[in-house]
Amino acid sequence: xxxxxxxxKHVLGIDWGTSNRRAYLIDPxxxxxxxxxxxxxxxxxxxxxxxxxxxxxxxMTLPLDTPVIASGMVGSAQGWHEVPYLDIxxxxxxxxxxxxxxxxxxxxxPGYCQRGAEVDVMRGEETQLLGALALGRDDGWVVLPxxxxxxxxxxxxxxxxxxxxxxxxxxxxxxxxxxxxxxLGGPEDADAFTAGIDAARLRAPLSNALFRxxxxxxxxxxxxxxxxxxxxxxxxxxxxxxxxxxxSSVASICSPALQQHYAVAAAQFGITLESLxxxxxxxxxxxxxxx
Length: 291
Fold this sequence. Notes:
This protein has helices spanning 42-45, 49-59, 125-134, 167-176, 190-200, 206-218, 227-243, 256-268, 278-287, and strands at 11-16, 21-26, 32-38, 68-72, 86-87, 100-103, 106-108, 112-114, 120-122, 140-144, 149-155, 158-165, 249-253, 272-276. The chain is an alpha/beta fold and 291 residues long. It folds into two domains: 11-137 and 279-290, Nucleotidyltransferase, domain 5, CATH 3.30.420.300; 167-276, 2-keto-3-deoxy-galactonokinase, C-terminal domain (Nucleotidyltransferase, domain 5), CATH 3.30.420. The strands form three sheets. Strands 3-2-1-4-7-6 form a six-stranded mixed beta sheet, sandwiched between helices. A five-stranded mixed beta sheet has the order 12-11-10-13-14, with helices on both faces. A three-stranded mixed beta sheet has the order 5-8-9, with no helix packed on it. A hairpin with a 2-residue loop joins strand 11 (149-155) and strand 12 (158-165). Helix 5 (190-200) packs across helix 7. The chain is globular. Keywords: Kinase, Transferase. One of its GO terms (biological process) is D-galactonate catabolic process.
């Protein structure tokens, strides 16, 4: 990143999602000097992304010429500038040299595309993976749970495979619409979550397994209060059914709440889950952009 004749003292990194954004002010050592979280995600900021960044800098009492590196949906077709995907053959350590300059001192990180028979994409997770690489995780599977849960295989710091599961989106959609929605208002229940994981082990087609959630309730086999946790276990368990054939050890990058759920599921499948703090990972990635 060439922002000026001399290296910048600080960089502001923005993890810019659809609904929310997180900002981190980083020094060259990767130390986080300030952070900010708000609801100015892509949907709220568009089409005034440049002004939104200026307002963010003002809110953090930072100079307007502070270099900004944004990742996530800001680089999508619906974002500030659509940044072409990199092919997964491009190693993660090359990301700092592949930024799109959207405006003076404003840069966007490209996502990755897996082509061929199993097409897949990511936008935003690549920055977290760069951070994992900076922290020494350059081989093996990494899971990044969320709206779209990403399972990524790394080899020598390069992406070998991407597998995306619509776990979070399905859970939210089913909870808001359709015949399952009225059943999904119950509290979290650990036993029901485990039962959902066990149901995923049956490897039934997902649409069939989802209907069986309703069938369990209306037949009296399961209390309606357990349906929400059962569904959560079923969807997360579906990811691990595939994962158990891939590796016995996986690193995860997610919030503490999601980490707890994924750790329970991993243990049920005999998989060791190593937790990587998402803030630490993102800051470690940003330090790589000082070069």
